[in-house]
Specification:
With 109 residues, this protein is mostly beta strands. It has a domain at 3-71: Roll (SH3 type barrels), CATH 2.30.30.100. Helices cover 9% and strands 34% of the residues. The protein contains 2 helices and 5 strands. The protein has a 5-stranded antiparallel beta sheet. Keywords: mRNA processing, mRNA splicing, Nucleus, Repeat, Ribonucleoprotein. It is found in: Nucleus.
């Protein structure tokens, strides 16, 4: 299972997100998109060395996330079940080249 798919299942969970610049964001996840952007509500935003700031909503760009710290109460065994339907691979014979080879372009005499 991909990490993004796991994070998408964490809607309405209270988590702590640490960013790459050592900022700590504590709040409730409202959603995660495919770029791993995390949308949160009821935020306590703590920049390193400064007092915390409270916010109603915040979106964190996915490439800025260092850690997502989960609470102990989350049932990981049920969340980690891969419920994505996989399509069986079908061998297709069409479109496998440009047709039958006709030699190497020999000169006509």
């Amino acid at each position: 299972m991909r990490l993004v798919r796991f994070l998408m299942k964490l809607s309405n969970e209270s988590v702590v997100v640490e960013l790459k610049n050592s900022t700590v964001v504590q709040g409730t996840i409202t959603g995660v998109d495919m770029s791993m952007n995390v949308h949160m509500k009821n935020i306590k935003f703590t920049v390193k060395g400064k007092p915390p700031v409270s916010m109603d909503h915040l979106t964190i760009r996915g490439n800025n996330v260092r850690y997502v710290i989960l609470p102990d109460s989350i049932p990981l065994d049920t969340l980690l079940v891969d419920d994505a339907k996989r399509l069986p691979k079908v061998k297709s014979l069409a479109g496998r080249g440009r047709g039958r080879g006709r030699g190497r372009g020999t000169k006509k005499k």
